[in-house]
Write a structure and sequence with these properties.
The chain is an alpha+beta fold and 104 residues long. The protein has one domain: Gcn5-related N-acetyltransferase (GNAT) (Aminopeptidase, 3-Layer(aba) Sandwich), CATH 3.40.630. It contains three helices and four strands, in the order βαααβββ. Strands 1-2-3-4 form a four-stranded antiparallel sheet. It starts with 7 loop residues before the first strand and ends in a 7-residue tail after the last strand. The C terminus is likely disordered.
Amino acid sequence: MTCPFQPTLRWATEADFDTLADVMFAAVREGESPYTEAQRQAWVPEPRRGSEWRTRLLSQDIIVAEADGRLLGFMSLAEGGGSLPTSEPKRRAQVCFASCSSAS
């Protein structure tokens, strides 16, 4: 699939936090998935909000992708976990990207 636009990347701000919750919800709960609906429901039962979500995001470095003023997806890096091949091996990455088709 090719996208009809070129997304730009930038650092997330606190003003993005509710939209990040909506993007994460859509990425997990909508479209095709190798997970069952029950698994997806347990992971993200609703878009996250509130102080716990804010605290979680403030503890991470977050890059967002956007096009035409719309946030399409994000990647966050947090201290202390995982063994993903990154330039900082003690960081873990979470990637949530909405599909190109849901961005139009």
